[in-house]
Write a structure and sequence with these properties.
Length: 416
């Protein structure tokens, strides 16, 4: 069987193939960067128009009640909850991932300070997304209470840093560069065994791989909605807190949306119960509306079906790249083992940035991360198997013909 026939048959047998029609994908483009910014659901344009023309334009301030703007963050949180193993009323979509991380770090440290004041160490990964590490450093500096950040180089190094001085462990479930995925249940159990709290960044997990925060007995989680959830550029992030911890502390960004009686306009803060206390200021309503369009598509499938297709797509991509580009200096960074792989594949190449730029010029959009890493994201909702074949063919041409050497591909853009 030829490769073309194999890909065609895979697409014909794909139970998720029809969902691709729900996205506004440009002609002539193979989009393999949904792990960074998801494609636009077609419904988003009509929803934005409705919110701007009708709810804002005609309803004006009345829409806080008539269009239920005031509860949109938590109503959308309930739609997201099932994708990450959370219960009703446990998730809020609000603010940015960075801001939400600050909230849960602060709340977790408050709880640990009461339980075990000697715990002054926060553990994370050297290769974690840098913003996560920056927030830890910033909060530690702000508190001025002797908190120290310690970093593991490899996932298997985690046990070496766990002891009775560790307060929190912040890990990204699927690493943004390598695509390595932690066993959340086993890792959370290990963290708890040492008396620390487990905080999970789900930015590259939500909507891409099955997640069950409740079953894993996780403590806190945050993540963004603009990657696999297709909420739009800069769309609000989400925050989840275990019900066992939610009311034990209040997060320090004590805005009026997190107050127990918001419109009582009281001069002193009293946090609401549950996840509502993790809200802060007035919500970005139009952006929130776009998130709903992405979330609604998940109701037409389930995470197990998405995971099966994700693994099939990434297996195929790895196989074809290694078969057809074996004479080039490519190194697979992403784990081969299914249990350790997210939904993107990363290869190292000495000229990775230029290679990615040359691919983009040919209509194959991936992205680049230092050092030398080319990332290719596979979003099961809209990526086809024929997309994979065409992307690999473009990569072969770029490498075999050394197209990446062209001067226009050597100049670094502000966003890589």
């Amino acid at each position: 069987m030829s490769l073309e026939q194999e890909l065609r048959e895979l697409d014909q047998a794909d139970p998720l193939a029809a969902l691709r029609n729900e996205f506004a994908l440009p002609d002539g483009v193979i989009y393999l960067d949904g792990n960074s910014l998801g494609a636009r659901p077609k419904a988003a344009l009509a929803r934005a128009t409705q919110m701007i023309e009708q709810e804002w334009g005609e309803g004006l301030i009345r829409s806080w009640n008539t269009a239920q703007w005031s509860t949109l963050s938590t109503r959308l949180g309930d739609k997201l909850a099932g994708l990450i193993g959370a219960g009703p009323g446990e998730v809020a979509i609000t603010d940015t991932t960075t801001v939400n991380l600050f909230k849960i770090l602060a709340a977790g440290l408050r709880i640990q300070a009461e339980r075990a004041p000697q715990r002054k160490i926060i553990v994370s990964e050297l290769h974690n997304f840098p913003a996560d590490l920056y927030v830890i450093e910033g909060l530690a500096d702000l508190l001025q209470q002797g908190y120290e950040l310690q970093l593991i180089d490899k996932p298997e190094d985690l046990p070496t840093l766990l002891n009775d001085k560790v307060a929190l462990v912040l890990l990204t479930h699927v690493n943004y560069k390598s695509g390595h995925m932690f066993d959340m249940s086993a890792t959370t159990e290990l963290i708890h065994r040492h008396g620390a709290l487990a905080l999970w960044d789900l930015a590259h997990s939500a909507g891409a791989v099955p997640v069950d925060l409740t079953a894993a007995k996780a403590d806190y989680a945050i993540g963004c909605t603009y990657k696999y959830l297709n909420g739009g550029p800069g769309s609000p992030a989400f925050v989840w807190v275990s019900p066992d911890l939610c009311d034990l502390a209040w997060q320090p960004l004590s805005g009026w949306w997190g107050h127990a009686r918001q419109f009582a306009m009281e001069p002193h803060y009293q946090p609401a119960s549950g996840i509502t206390r993790y809200l802060c200021g007035t919500q970005p309503l139009v952006s929130l509306g776009m998130v709903e369009c992405g979330l609604d598509l998940f109701a037409r499938t389930d995470m197990q079906a998405l995971r099966r297709k994700s693994l099939a797509l990434t297996d195929l991509f790895i196989r074809l790249v290694e078969e057809r580009c074996k004479d080039h200096p490519l190194t697979l960074v992403t784990p081969r083992e299914h249990a350790q792989r997210g939904s993107h594949v990363s290869f190292e190449h000495p000229e990775g940035y230029a290679v990615v730029q040359a691919l983009i010029a040919k209509g194959v959009i991936g992205d680049y991360r230092e050092p030398h890493i080319m990332r290719f994201g596979f979003t099961p909702l809209y990526t086809s198997f024929q997309d994979v074949g065409l992307a690999v063919q473009a990569l072969v041409e770029v490498l075999d013909n050394q197209e990446w050497r062209a001067p226009q591909f050597q100049t670094r853009h502000a966003v890589t």
